[in-house]
Amino acid sequence: MAKGKLYGIGVGPGDPELLTLKALRLLKECPVIGIPGKNPSESVAFNIAKGAYPEIERKQLLLLETPMTKDRDILDEGYEKAADQIIECLDQGKDVVVVTLGDTTVYSTYIYMQRNVAAKGYEVETVPGITSFCAVSAYLNDSLVDRDEMLHVIPASYQIDDALELSGTKVLMKAASKMPEVKKVIKEKNQKAIMMENCGMENQMVYTSVDDIPDSASYYSLTIIKER
After folding, report:
1. pTM here?
2. Tens of pLDDT, residues 210-227
3. Which H or E run includes 187?
């Protein structure tokens, strides 16, 4: 029996219409849908995909639970377990598509599973999706960078003070838990910031000044900082 193939697809930041044609085709063709998490109804990526393809609920749904921790050993064990779940389906000749929020290559849980699957000799394909920071800039009808400006994508774990010393545009990802600190540093550096919560979703919010940004922000918040 021929082995199945693993696909990872980025479903974009929130608006189901931002799903690519290739991602939609794979959702329709693959018999198994891999969903990071415990519950499909709580998965943002799954619900975005369902918005574009409601029939997805009729598919075989494979829940790929990974632990919420920074312990590398525990994380690696979780990724290995998820990969084994995927491989079980691939060995049955079933293609599996795993949905992930935004793009598959930017801070994506999927890529760790994929590496384990590929390392065991199975065929994999990674399909890009629209990133949240590109979607936010498009929504604002503005560019991320002009001419020779540099673009820096920075996780919240990075030293914010150091990050804001970089020239060009800074994109802060996953910074919601550190928002008071982020706002303080932005003001000290006299830089311009726009923050968007839940881009492309029904509860989307845009804050165009630092003072308007709430201290308690959604997990799906993104801040774009530009030099004045």
Report:
1. 0.91
2. 889 988 888 888 999 987
3. helix 179-189
